[in-house]
Amino acid sequence: MTARRVRLALDGPAGTGKSTVSKRAARELGYTYVDTGAMYRAVTCLAVQRGLGLTEEAAIVELAEQHPVTFQSAETGEPRVFVAGQEVTTQIRTPEISRLVSPLSAIRGVRTALVRQQQALGSAGGVVLEGRDIQTVVMPDAEVKVFLTASAEERARRRFLELQERGTPQDYDKVLTEICERDDRDSSREVAPLTAAADAAIVDTDGLTIDQVVAQIVALVRQAEGEAR
What we know:
Elements: E1 7-11, H1 18-29, E2 32-35, H2 36-49, H3 57-66, E3 70-72, E4 80-83, E5 86-87, H4 95-105, H5 108-122, E6 127-130, H6 134-138, E7 144-149, H7 152-165, H8 172-188, E8 201-204, H9 210-227
Parallel strand pairs: 1-6, 1-7, 2-6, 7-8
Antiparallel strand pairs: 3-4, 4-5
Helix pairs in contact: 1-9, 2-4, 3-5, 7-8
């Protein structure tokens, strides 16, 4: 009997390797990868382009509702991201968008619009949904829930190296400060605060290679597939 394809909901604070691990796990499992964080970044990018400030919540919510974010696969494995008829794959990874996306994503109406889109994308199974509040709000009934963790210092180091590789270097202490501030905002916000689901598997990535983390997650999914037959 063929194993049923399940849903993997993967969450955790910034810099824990969620995107890298999710893409690798999806590839090994033959699942579809959905970067839900990119959806919030795309709306943030669109709001910046339209000259909207964070206090203009009604206008930002309207953008999220009227311009669904879509993805296209690419040979690189990094999905191409589109919103309002334009590709924003590169623009959504700039430091400016990284700074603004957390407060924008706390706007209730934005989350409502994007959660609806994310639930539709994950409804058929065979999908890895990665991003904030996936295993607590978006897909609380997912067969597999994983919460990645790592120390703030390790996450800042990874982000510091990532920015260097992208040609947009920043001071390490600044990166660490921003990581800590984002942790505080995300865990204390009123709407969908960052937290692990009660039944989530907690994976501490400090000291582990990407291969080791992916292997743990793939094993959890394969076990769930067997139980779902």
